[in-house]
Amino acid sequence: MNRAAPVRWDRLIRNVHLATFEPAQHGSQDPQFDPDYGVVRDGAIAIAGGRIAWLGAEAQLPPNASAAEEVDGQGQWLLPGLIDCHTHLVFGGNRAEEFEQRLQGVSYADIARAGGGINSTVRATRATGVDALVAQARPRLQALLAEGVTGIEIKSGYGLDLASERQMLQAASRLGAEFGIKLQRTFLGAHALPPQYQDNADGYVDELCQTMLPSLAAEGLVDAVDGFCESIAFSTAQMERVFACANALGLPVKLHAEQLTNQGGAALVARHGGLSADHLEYLDAAGIAAMAAAGTTAVLLPGAYYFLRETKQPPLQALQQAGVPIALASDANPGSSPLFSLQLMLNFACTLWGMTPAQALTAVTRNGALALGWQDHCGTLARGKRADLVLWPLQTPAELAYQFGGIRPSQIWIEGQPQQVQS
Ligand code: NIG
Ligand code: FE
To answer: Which residue's alpha carbon is at the smallest distance from atom 8 of ligand 1?
Structure first.
């Protein structure tokens, strides 16, 4: 007789429906659901060493396997942890006064030109130490985690000098360690022209490339490099220099591109093999083609679109037709998206732009991971990936995009470890 050796898992979650976001593997199993969810009904998932060790229909559980702990999912839905792949979560102060100005008719760009906007948050951030930056960002992060976020990107970019950018990245590192989440720290030194370089953008780019980025990278504080390519920020030629410096340091790049005007930033970041181009309301056909050819993810930010009362929609259909993967993120920041909710972004993307719930949920799981270069580690339910799992009290996954408010995870596991769930 040929009997398989016994298998012992750390944890087995049974009696759950799985939305794997692996359509190629599981997409056609249940015609009731959009294939993008990759549904496995009446499923189970096993965890060993913080990774997914097995998943499938509960009826197919290998008879030789057992687990140290079993969890009854009570027929709820299990999804991969959500990924917020574009945030500016660490900053000092707030910009409620500018919100009032904007509602009296002053534009976001005009406020920035008059020394407000990003630079007003730079003044507040520079005046805030690391401890206070962590303390101020903690409740923002907790708000995201309470909605099932288990992976996040946090940018610098409100320091704009070496010491202050360092403090922001240190604050991000501390938050990542405190909550045990998967974190990407992105250096956004090219966010705005700081006051000390008012009429000397190229001089600032020199300092950024020669001193700031190499120092912070050497200190192990930088996982990726971003910039703001815009008429009120940096040109494509200036961003090209920043990207060359990032490439030389072996750091992946991404870009805030075509948010307010079309500058050709998406094509630039694609040319540099970028992870993502973000915002993209003013993206043109050439930019879409460049992104498709390079495999650069489009990160769409419905919070900033909504909060700035933008009327030009990103070219969603053209991106989809070109096969560009689409991610969604909160863009959580004090100026253009003081909205600390990824669930709200799901609803916005569907109601404002016509994404389907399955597309929107794919955009904060599978494609959120892709936008951060994490596709081998998380973002879907697949054997070998991190066991970052969220159990939801839903009848169908679409409810997560449909209802805003009142839906909270029943249980969260990060690398297989159960987390305290806020009720
Ligand atoms: O993603 N576009 C530039 N950066 C941020 C806004 C920053 C701010 O206004 O403070 C964004 O929208
Ligand atoms: Fe942003």
So the answer is: 335
Backbone phi and psi for residue 242, each to the nearest 5 degrees, phi listed first: -65, -40
How many Å apart are CA 43 and CA 375, to the nearest integer?
23
Structure tokens belonging to residue 183: 């974190």
- The per-residue pLDDT for range 32-84, each reduced to its tens digit, is 999 999 999 999 999 999 999 999 999 999 999 999 999 999 999 999 999 99
CB 302 within 8 Å of CB 349: yes
301 CA to centre of ligand 1 in angstroms: 11
Using CA positions, which residue lies closest to atom 9 of ligand 1?
335
Crossing angle for the helix pair 130-145 and 162-179, to the nearest 10 degrees: 40
Atom of ligand 1 nearest to the CA of 278: 1
User: Using a 6 Å CB cutoff, which residues line ligand 1?
Assistant: 88, 117-118, 121, 228, 256, 259, 304, 331, 333-336
Which atom of ligand 1 is the closest one to the Cα of 117? Answer: 9
Yes or no: say if 48 and 108 are a contact pair by the CB < 8 Å rule.
Answer: no
Written as six digits, the tokens of 32 are 């009731």
Task: Kindly give the distance from the C-alpha atom of residue 336 to the centroid of ligand 1, in angstroms, as a whole number.
Answer: 5
Please tell me whether the overall predicted TM-score, pTM, comes out greater than 0.85 for this model: yes
Q: Rounded CA gap, 247 and 419, in Å?
A: 37
Closest CA to 101 of 86, 112, 115, 111: 111
Say how many Å lie between the CA of residue 302 and the centre of ligand 2: 11
| 336 closest CA partner among 72, 88, 77, 36 | 88
Instruction: Quote the CA–CA distance of 29 and 325 in Å, as a whole number.
Output: 23
Which residue lies with its CA nearest to atom 3 of ligand 1?
Answer: 228
